[in-house]
Amino acid sequence: xxxxxxxxxxxxxxxxxxxxxxxxxxxxxxxxRYPPPRVHTVVIWTKxxxxxxxxxxxxxxxxxxxxxxxxxxxxxGTPLEPRVPRxxxxxxxxxxxxxxxxxPRRLRLRPDPLVVLERGKKILSNIEKVPEIIxxxxxxxxxxxxxxxxxxxxxxxxxxxxxxxxALELSLKERREIWENLATTAAExxxxxxxxxxxxxxxxxxxxxxxxxxxxxxGQACRTDKSKGQRLSCGCTHSIDxxxxxxxxxxxxxxxxxEPIVFSRGAGSQGGLPVLSLGGNS
Length: 282
Known about the structure:
Elements (H helix, E strand, L loop, with lengths): L8 E5 L9 H11 L5 E8 L3 H6 L1 H4 L5 E6 L15 H5 L2 H8 L5 E4 L5 E4 L2 E4 L4 H10 L4 E4 L6 H9 L3 E2 L4 H17 L3 E4 L13 H7 L24 E2 L41
Parallel strand pairs: 1-2, 1-10, 2-3, 3-4, 4-7, 7-9
Antiparallel strand pairs: 5-6, 5-8
Pfam families: DUF1848 (PF08902)
InterPro entries: DUF1848
Protein name: DNA repair photolyase
């Protein structure tokens, strides 16, 4: 756009894959294509705080501003997220992560998506776990949260079925009751819960050029026009996404909307992260 000529760019790593598993490649692409003088903010989307704190730290610290979307569903280490760290491990690193970012407003925590599944006669859901995740993160300084309800796309349905799971549909009334409870929990902790692309809910901006401008250490402005190619209920502002759907994610999350590498049931420990049973719901 003509009015944005010469403005520094916001680079996103990445809506398309988990950067933890491709840290070296993405770091090389980032520093070569978008060196620090060209970049306003680097936005990291991850379930692994160590991608910021260790594996990409050397490159990321060269940039003026980082903003992190950290996903903690409460399902890490279960068959639904076999190679994702357990939530208590991730939450324990929040103080260190916030310190590195320099401001808690540069971190948004995502207990996303909200999942309700059935296997046999047993139910597996993270909805009861999310309030405590919100409370613990808020007490560490996090003020912004985003979530959504799992969308049962045909490929997701097939993947879940291959592992013995069936997604349960929630009525609009049930969704609103769940949302009200989670939003109230966040508000009680002085935080805000945002809907990420939920039809019928207020539109929010996970990449928010207005916020990134306000938080920038030198007060530099970035683009605030709506990003093209996103869903209708997405309010995100312009960014450049590094990452490719061909970079398949080994996290193995069964509800993923992309094409993850999926592990069979009973595969045991993966990458040092145990595949847990469903406990009382197995």
